[in-house]
């Protein structure tokens, strides 16, 4: 087993500097520990003590705020001296909120309206956009993402003549989702 003194430098000045730094850190931690113990005694007295001995909530919050500030400043000093800790905090976490993982296989389903002709003038409809939804589908021991696309169609002739308010935008209705059918089936069986 190696001795911890093997990593110490042979230079006396560096040893003294390390000892001073260690002592100042110990003194800072002892002072912080004393503040925490004092706050703990106050909290215990506030919680378990007599009514006349209880602290005012605002005064207690002020003491906790001072303590949090002192702890944060001490932590910032430690972070400045420790390069690996500072580097690890600088790297931003990649957070995925609302999107399904890109590595999963996807199966696209396009649901077209029954007719692609304008109901008012009979002209051809063109795509003006689409609604896109993703849901996670589980096949035993296999996951896949089913992408359902529902293109929206509009008539170019009606757009030019101003008759668009009659025809509007045509889009196929969204399919029923498994959870929707489960809820409707559940309400059906309970009634």
Explain the overall architecture.
This protein has 191 residues and is an alpha+beta fold. It folds into two domains: 7-90; 106-173, no CATH class. 49% of the residues lie in helices and 19% in strands. It contains six helices and four strands; from the N terminus they run H-H-H-E-E-E-H-H-E-H. A hairpin with a 2-residue loop joins strand 2 (125-139) and strand 3 (142-155). Helix 1 runs antiparallel to helix 2 (57-81). The longest helix is centred in the N-terminal third of the chain and has 37 residues, at 12-48. The protein starts with 11 loop residues before the first helix and ends with a helix. The model is unreliable at 181-191 (pLDDT under 50).
User: Sheet bearing the most strands, described?
Assistant: 4 strands, mixed
Mean pLDDT: 76
Termini distance? 75 Å
Beta-strand percentage?
Answer: 15-25%
Tell me the number of structural domains.
2
Q: What structural class do the secondary elements suggest?
A: alpha+beta
Instruction: Let me know the number of strands.
Output: 4
Runs in which pLDDT lies below 50 for 5 or more consecutive residues are 181-191
The best one-word shape is elongated
Gyration radius, to the nearest Å? 34 Å
Number of helices: 6
The sequence of SSEs as H and E is HHHEEEHHEH
